[in-house]
Amino acid sequence: MVDGVQMVHYDSNSQRAVPKQDWMNKRTDTQYWDRNTGILLVSQQTFKAGVDILKQRFNQSGGDHYIQYMYGCSWDDETGVTEGFRQLGYDGEDFLVYDMKTFTWIAPKQQAVITQHKWNSDQAGLVFWKNYISQTCIEWLKKYLEYRKSTLKRTVPPTVSLLQKTPSSLVTCHATGFYPSGVMVFWQKDGQEQHEDVEHGETLPNNDGTFQKSTHLTVTPEEWKNNKYQCVVQVTGIKEDFIKVLTQSEIPPWADWDNSGKGILKT
């Protein structure tokens, strides 16, 4: 995933790694997917064997059990600060955590100590992962960001809509489909920015590489009918402000949200 958006998917049935974003499909070749398919196939086999081993350590005989493996890195393009992480979980709980300060494994559970000692004695492996997370991962992150940027416009304007499920509920201003992620979504009352009774949501990624953000206003129907309320959206790199004035016609009473954050109509 990059910035919360899935870009690659491995199907354990077909045993193939496939792109989930157009920008990944356009900027990578067959060798890339063959190489990653091979890596993930080995991981699938390793995790399957790992579940059997951990079931014995936890004295489990049946049922469904899971190994979760996560690693990644972050890069601040303004400060240059980088961070990384690597950890394994079993049945939803931490099993092993890679300490990025000492570059060694920590065992939160007694059942993990055997693996901790084995992996910490593998000096070549420790050096590999130290370099991979602190350097190689950052290099790939920058590549993926460039891949994504090259297939999107430099700036993409938002689609702005208003939603109120009932006359007594919050009024939501929802901006979606914009790029880059820098955005301000705020409410104005009679031309002045409204700070009270306003709740700001987080900027979230869409599956297509763009972003979305919502800001909620608590206001009575009488109040917004007697005053001019409007939602203003400003996106980094776009001079134009995107404004939606709060009127009855801008709030379809049958509107609702689906899980993707886009409006759907229910009849």
TrEMBL record:
Q: Which Gene3D superfamilies match?
A: Immunoglobulins, MHC class I-like antigen recognition-like
This protein's record includes keyword Acetylation: no
Q: Which Pfam families match?
A: C1-set, MHC_I
Q: Which UniProt keywords apply?
A: Glycoprotein
Alphabetical GO CC annotations of the entry are: external side of plasma membrane; extracellular space
* SMART domains for the chain: IGc1
- Write out the similarity annotation: Belongs to the MHC class I family.
Protein name, entry field: Ig-like domain-containing protein
